[in-house]
Amino acid sequence: MTTDAFRSNPDNFCYRHPDRQSFALCQRCGRTICGECQTQGAVGVICPECMREQRRAAPRVARAARSRGSTLSVVRDTRPLVTFWIMGITAVAYLTQLIPGSPVQQLLAFNSLLVMPQVGFEPWRLFTVLLVHGSFWHMGLNMLALFMIGRSLEPLLGRWRFLSLYLLSGLGGSVAVALLAPGVWVVGASGAIFGLFGALLVIGRHIGANVTGIVIIIAINFALPIILGIVGGSLAAIRISGEAHVGGFIVGAAVGFLFARTRGVRQQRLQQWLLIAVAVVLLALLIIPAVLYV
Which of 108, 118, 194, 270 has its CA at a distance of 20 to 30 angstroms from the CA of residue 49? Predict the structure, then answer.
């Protein structure tokens, strides 16, 4: 779809605020709604009109609830809660690493040898690697980048799509390490962060946004380890996994493209199956190091 076609399609914009682009749909009527218009329901977000209809359809339930001393209120929470939860859990995981003798990093770090049945099988490390970091600055910079991207990207995609993007990007980084750097220990959420960069770039380009700033930030983040290595005299001393960065970025860009092309109400089931397919393909790629490197 071209940029002009995207802009001319009202389904790509909030029906109550036509100047606001969004990827979130009301789970009842299927119309596009921005973060301000979203009300979190039991199975997704609901637009204000559907919420009013829902309230009118059940006045007796509301009166009965009030008579029992309870209140039924709608909380409009447009905060990027998934982003905040990821930041909080990651920070707690890092604090547990600081406890003397803590085995947290050893238990959660990733090494491709530990997802090979012939050597060991601890598949949770494909994801738990996102929680542990090598230093305070490593964790802090990753979480700062997550906050900067998440506060814009999460309301645009919706919470579950954003979480899927983060986890699949992290998985992509782990798989890339297994393919290109087998037997190497890695820690950190950089693969997932670069996946968010990739998705933001693709989605921004798709909706016609100026992506120059995004490209510059991505280039700086890719180049920074090399620059630090040159200054320090050794690229190896930096201990940054370029494989995880590249793998996460590629998967994030692919998922972002998937989101951009499956926005319609009738495409939501297809979108879910495609996300599952991405996960299956990434896991299937782990067969390669299991065959070649052991």
Answer: 270
